[in-house]
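Quarterly update from the structural biology core.
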Amino acid sequence: MNRPLLVSDLDNTLIHSQKHRRPGDVCVEYRKGKEQGFTSPRALDLLREVIRTGRLVPVTTRSVEQYLRILWPDGVAPEYAVTTNGALLLWRGEIHPEWLGESQRAIAPYRAELERTLALATEQNRFVRCRMVDEMYVFAYCGPELDIREAAASFAGKTALTVIPSGRKLYFLPPSVSKGTALPRLKALLKADRVMSAGDSRIDLPMLALSERALVPPGGLAEELPAGVAEVAGEGEPFAEFVLRTALGWLGGEG
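Predicted structure, tokenized:
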């Protein structure tokens, strides 16, 4: 059997925000009519080829609604996508009911804790917004005046959820569901025998650590992975282009 699979984070991995936009970048996402997400023309060409292999599964913390905003090349989206930090699987844009049921059972012991943590974060009145994402995890957005790591540390001992800062965002995640727990489920569903993964943040670590090859940007992320797993992008190449170029060769394509 030779069924490789590429699982990849989206934001700051395959696409990037207005903040990191470069001249010539192509818009691949709109929000309320405004340009939101971008990628380079080269990355878009590579993405088109990777999608054609049928072996790409995006794995993202985005909600279903946020994921569905993405404009895939030629209007052809990957057949499968995992959203909501591993909790939901989309098949041709629709929620997979068996996957949903399994995730709901895994999160059930943390349901009350999710509600309590959302209330706790909201009551602090120092976040721009707090919300429950697809009923699966809690999210808080911090303004520029707030130290994100100090904000994360302030929840130590106050919640049973895993608290991870990322950019201006705080994620409160049930330990029973993650990008890492999604990986063996995906391998079984798609009958994959080996996995390459790509990601840029600590939320991706559980997924990256379980892969045969893990593509990461320059920085300290590689040091948190098992020896011999990480492949680090070069300083001069955009991360999305590195990921897609490397993956295309690994999946049996060209480039």
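The first strand starts at residue 4 and ends at 8.
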